[in-house]
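Table S2 (continued). Query chain:
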Amino acid sequence: MVDIETKKHIIECLTKGVRYDGRSMTEFRPIEVRTGLIETAEGSAQVKCGNTEVIAGVKMTMEKPYPDTPNEGILMVGAELLPLSNPRYESGPPDAYAIEVARVIDRGIRESKSLDNKRLCIQAGEKVWTINVDICPINDDGNLFDVGSMAAVAAILSATFPAVENDKINYKKRTAEKIPLAKIPIAVTVSKIGGFFIVDPQESEEQSCDTRLTVTTTDDGNLCALQKGGYGTLTIPDIDKMLTLALAKATEIRKLIKDSLVPRTGESYE
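Corresponding output:
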């Protein structure tokens, strides 16, 4: 946690309308999105947002479906936070924060209903495609929820199915078929520090925030998921401000992801 003096200084800066790095309160750090970087993955993406850098990869397997959804494929998102990305993390099983990061990103994609799970069915009740998305930060300087979400979505959109030969997957061959993701769900986290609302916090800002709200929306502005964090409280006017800000920033981020995909696939995700 950041000490009281650091938090006090952050709030003093916000009072003057500036942040540590000179950004406005509603401004993201420069974002770079690259896709198709990992040859052994069906889809992959690297997203840099300031000094925060995340890599996501997609692997696809054929599994038995869940009993309650026999004709639907499966999406699984996991996050591994390694010490190389931030000294706060430790080697070993995922801690509570790693689990929260994975669940928030997973929920945003799942509840957007963008993924047509029924098209992932191979044989009802017997065999479906499972989409495994692994998220790994290379450097964590804050805002893993949003940067991880960008990487996961970009990796899914860049992915193509492997070939199936004699009922077995041939990972050395790729088809032209893409994962059926009809819309692009984007997560934007708005943090509240004192009485101020900011997006894309650096680590010191993130550690100083009283509360945060991660808002996931789709292209048409529909709200998919909300996740509150921190110990502070939010009023109805606070939530309204945070939703409005998240929707506006999601539109900007969505365009960046679309642009990263067009040169590689020749397609336009409108």
